[in-house]
Amino acid sequence: MTTRAGFIALIGEPNAGKSTLLNRMVGAKVSIVTHKVQTTRARIRGVAMEGESQLVFVDTPGLFQPRRRLDRAMVAAAWGGAADADVIVLLIEAHRGITEGVERILERLEDVGKGRTVALAINKIDRVKSEALLGLTQDLNARFSFAKTFMISAERGHGVEDLRKWLAEQVPEGPWLYPEDQIADLPMRMIAAEITREKLTLRLHQELPYQLTVETEAWEEREDGSARIDQIIYVMRDGHKGIILGKGGETIKAVSKAAREELEEFLGRRVHLFCQIKVRPNWLDEAERYSEMGLDFRDGNA
């Protein structure tokens, strides 16, 4: 039996569907999916099996014009993930086409993609007509020499199986990198924090999209098989604390309940989740917060 294994970097603009595609490929929810841009901060790896091939996906933060330290660290992590991968998949939203952001990514790919297999996946194909898709495909392939082009809908699953089978043939021969039943290499503490952050993002809409972070402070395994998880939600201002608490504490209660239910489903057992809110005005400039997110604080200086 010849086994194969390799790293696959999913890159693209924010909201291109990278997290949705990763979750579809792996068959489980390992990366948070919201309609907010830039919700993926850490390089989350999902592991999928296809025949005798193990595909290790690096779900990178969306590539955009960075303005703050956190933005710069996220973009550095994204390109770092691409540079370390065996195969790169560029995701483009069919209905948005070649934006300024896509132009910048294509320019950078000329350097980062050298010597690597780079595929193009045009996502959300159900949003445009076939003639427009054909024109977009021709334009993109004229600008970069993609090894192969796929038409997909990550949300509905169309074309995803073809992409996964092709990727299985592209990764190098070698032993598997993870146990067969492992779906992600993120510590459970970080996955738990990501789940709570997703629920906050969905609940708060535009009020506090990126000025908060969640850390799992403690994880206690109990004798009855359940787990007690203590988390801290860091915000930048006192006013933010009130928004997260909500009237009579209703917002934090709803967020905690939704996060707990998803954690219970993910872990397959009871979870006791306790969330505290703390004000830390400068958390965006603290190296420790970046480490918790799997980002390099020094990359924010670039």
Task: Explain this structure.
This protein is α/β, with parallel strands linked by helices. The protein folds into 2 domains: 4-170, 3-Layer(aba) Sandwich (Rossmann fold), CATH 3.40.50.300; 188-301, K homology (KH) domain (GMP Synthetase, Chain A, domain 3), CATH 3.30.300. The protein is built from 9 helices and 9 strands. The chain has helices spanning 18-26, 69-84, 100-112, 130-143, 160-170, 188-204, 238-245, 250-267, 287-292; strands at 4-12, 44-50, 53-59, 87-93, 117-123, 148-151, 212-221, 227-235, 271-279. The strands form 2 sheets. A 6-stranded mixed sheet has the order 2-3-1-4-5-6, sandwiched between helices. Helix 6 (188-204) crosses helix 8 (250-267). An essential GTPase that binds both GDP and GTP, with rapid nucleotide exchange. Plays a role in 16S rRNA processing and 30S ribosomal subunit biogenesis and possibly also in cell cycle regulation and energy metabolism. Residues 12-19 are annotated as: G1. Residues 123-126 are annotated as: G4. Residues 38-42 are annotated as: G2.
The arrangement of helices and strands along the chain is EHEEHEHEHEHHEEHHEH
What is the fourth-level CATH superfamily of the largest domain? P-loop containing nucleotide triphosphate hydrolases
Radius of gyration: 20 Å
Q: Any low-confidence stretches, pLDDT <50, length ≥5?
A: 33-41
Estimate nothing, just give the exact number of structural domains: 2
Give the class-level CATH name of the largest domain: Alpha Beta
Q: Based on CA inertia axes, which overall geometry fits?
A: globular
For the biggest β-sheet, the strand order reads 2-3-1-4-5-6
User: How many helix segments?
Assistant: 9
CATH fold name of the largest domain = Rossmann fold
Question: What is the CATH-assigned architecture of the largest domain?
Answer: 3-Layer(aba) Sandwich
Helix content: 25-40%
Main beta-sheet annotation: 6 strands, mixed
The count of strands amounts to: 9
Percent strand equals 15-25%
Termini distance? 46 Å
By helix and strand content, what is the structural category? Answer: alpha/beta
The residue-averaged pLDDT reads 82
Subunit structure: Monomer.
Region (G2): 38-42
Protein name: GTPase Era
Domain KH type-2: 204-281
